[in-house]
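thread: overnight batch results

M.L. [08:02]
morning all. the overnight job finished for the chain we discussed friday. pasting input first so we're all looking at the same thing
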Amino acid sequence: MIGAQRVDFVAVPTRDRERAARFYGETLGFGRNPNSSDTWIEFETGNLTLALVQPETIGVDFAPLPFGSIAIRVPDVAAAKQRLGEAGVEFRGEIWDSGVCHGAVFSDPDGNGLLLHHRYAPYRDGTTP
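M.L. [08:03]
and the structure it wrote out:
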């Protein structure tokens, strides 16, 4: 209907842009987009850009993204969870197995819902992840 080609970025709300930048860049290891500025910071994940935004600067109340809003594909959920745990990241519960994928839920310093994710079962069309 609108000719959508893809999703270019997700706006990640933060109250402290520099703290969030350290988390996404240093803790998670995402590459900072070289076109970022002091007021617009982007991180590249391979297929989606995460843009750190301060909603109050445009008159919008801060509200974190809900549970599991950003699912980060990793080759091994348990190994990634261990590394992040060692870096001080707190997880909500244990690793879960849905029957097609593994996941582990956590939040960034602003409470935005993130999860580690690895699909191990083929898609319905028979292709593999």
